[in-house]
Amino acid sequence: MAISGNEEVSSETIFRCRNCGAPLDVSPETIVAICNYCGYANWIKEDLKENILIVESLKDHEILGKVRNRIETDKDLRSIAKYISIGRPYIVYIPFYFVDVKAEADYSGVVNVRVRKCTGSGKERKCWTTTYIVHVDGSYGPFSASYPIICRRGVKAFSANALGAYYLRNPVKPKYISEINFEAKTARRILAVEIDRKTAMDIALDDHLDTLRDRVTKEIKREAESKVRWRGTVVGPTIIRKKITPKNIRIRSSSIIMLPLYIVPYSYRRGVYRLFLSGWDGETIVAEEPMKLSNRILWGSGGALIAGLLGGTAITLFKTMELAGIIIGGIALAIGGYSSWYSFKMATRPVRVEIVGEKFKAIKELGEKVGKILSVVGSFEGLVQVVGKEAIHELLSRE
Amino acid sequence: MSNVELRREKGFVLIKCPYCTAEYRVPETIKYATCPYCGTTFRLDKPDAKIEHFLFKMVFDKNSAYKLARDFATHQVGVVEDLYENSSFESATLYYVPLYIYEINIKALCKSEKEETSESGEVEIAVHGGEEVSYELVKAVDKVPIPLPDDYGFPARARMYFKPTILKDGKYLQPNRDPMEIFNSVKRPSLEQAIEEAKISCDRGYHVIDNSKYHGIAHYPFWWIKYSYRGKTYNALVDAADGTIVYLEYPLSMSGRLFSLGGGITSIILAGGIGSLITWYILKEPLLGFIGGFIATIPGFLVAAFKMISSKGRYKFKPGEEALFMPVR
């Protein structure tokens, strides 16, 4: 019995091997079921046979060799390598679409830009703020990006996203799934496709245009500021009205590509940690590592250092009793408080997670998701734009 | 498949399964019924509607889940040194928590724009309005008896079809929330966002195309583990599909708590010292700087204090902090 890729199979459906008639172990994931008795490959979702590409994986022993090599050479792990024992590797094939999106945008906007002007010097110096209404329009782009879209509904797994991002940077040529000589184990570790190509393209379009709209909004502000810069010092823009029309959008999606992800646990003393590796080259893409006492002390003291510096600076600024000093001091104190909170969270976390190659970008993205304190900092940035910069200039213009 | 036979009496519904003809009864408050003999699932208000229903596979058994929780507890700051030797497994309950799966796919297209329907893998759009596309998971029961975060997502792991045997293995929670009511509230923010985008995009108005779908139910397995350490009981919630520790209680040692709190206090003093150096140098008033450094370190100190305030430490997995302050899935 074979069914089409979109057809649902229920628990009542019974599958039997087409070669020997033995019952087959079929799950919602099964694309091809290898008979446990005769080894015959039974295609359950026949129409996917020529539509799915797969990146072949290294074998378990090759992956274990790569893991050993990493443990012996990694700057954090090599000193504890002799206490580490490596567990059994687990492989899973995750289906992806890779979607390229290219788009332009026409834009126009009306922006209030506050400009600070000063005349005279010394005690004769007088400053005031004027608001100009600025009209801007133009075109932005083309802006292009590639998106790995996991073909599974509702999946939230950092390691799977990291695998897709890693493949974009280090692609290898996949094969058609029908060209692979499956072992039963491999066949059972392939996750089925739950999202069609059209939906994957819609998801990528949504991501891309959200980014495009953010970029164009910044461009509108930047352009409005640059138009009045010759009149004085720009304090900040406020968009009164804007129009952003995405145009000339081109979306191209790959076929489904199955990427192998290896998860290898290792134990150090009494704790268990995991390495996540790309199956095709055995490179570690995400590593959990033990938090040493020295790591904790470093984070704690680093946080205290920054908090002390910013706290002391804040009080010094408060002492000026000037509006500008109080605002900048408040911002310094808030950033100091955030630094200490962040550092202590890092110091007390249960494991250290290293995102190989993408460290800063990934942490930035996650930081945006954590978002709470960044939004606080963001609101201060807004405050600075509205009131602060003017005040800052006032402060800086004093001798 | 023949039609389902339903008979209501005294708060229950008597059901004759259309597939295996077995008879069973369920409380009338539930929205879905699953035959305990053959696993056939259907909506009580629409018995003939086809339901997509699957489970995530339990990969970690109760012993593995307990070991994962115990080993993870040893990573925590201030945990007792002898947890490994002196803790023991007490009990484990497997919960199958039902989640509704929704696909939100809303487009607010400009008047002149047509919806693209190409399946070829390549699409060109001349002018576009707004769009919101995402997948949302919502708990299908009013009260989940385990501390599961609202934004917990699925793992990249295998699923299986319903098997009646799982009803004996654990607590299989029956969905009792109306999936269509939830659907509307889940869609609303995306609809508003797509319209907002179209308003700033389209010259001559827009039209909304809603391709959102309610896909069905997935039951997700979690182990609620109880373990003891020196006569006290501690709880842990372990994702049975991918081994993520979702919630964990662990014993803290007095020395560990004092050490951590001492570290927090030392940080405050260090920050105060640095602050006082700055104000001493600029203002010749070191006390003010000490106060500044002290205030800036309070959020950090509170992180340590909350972890150490009780003799029972608590860890909660927060999906938004994955890979930053939490392990990865």
Characterize the structure shown.
- The complex is a heterodimer of chains A (399) and B (329).
- Chain A is 38% helix and 31% strand.
- Chain A has helices at 60-73, 158-169, 184-188, 197-228, 293-318, 323-347, 359-370, 372-397, and strands spanning 32-34, 41-43, 52-54, 84-86, 90-119, 126-150, 175-176, 233-253, 256-268, 271-278, 284-290, 351-355.
- Chain A is of the alpha+beta class.
- In chain B, helix 5 (254-282) runs antiparallel to helix 6.
- In chain B, strands 6, 7, 9, 10, 11, 12, 13, 14, 15 and 16 form a ten-stranded mixed beta sheet that branches.
- Chain B is built from six helices and 16 strands.
- Chain B is 28% helix and 34% strand.
- With 329 residues, chain B is an alpha+beta fold.
- Chains A and B meet through strand 5, helix 2, helix 4, strand 8 and strand 10 of A and helix 1, strand 7, strand 8, strand 9 and strand 10 of B.
- Strand 8 of chain A pairs antiparallel with strand 8 of chain B, so a sheet runs across the interface.
Quick synopsis:
Chain A is of the alpha+beta class. Chain A has helices at residues 60-73, 158-169, 184-188, 197-228, 293-318, 323-347, 359-370, 372-397; strands spanning 32-34, 41-43, 52-54, 84-86, 90-119, 126-150, 175-176, 233-253, 256-268, 271-278, 284-290, 351-355. In chain B, strands 6, 7, 9, 10, 11, 12, 13, 14, 15 and 16 form a 10-stranded mixed beta sheet that branches.
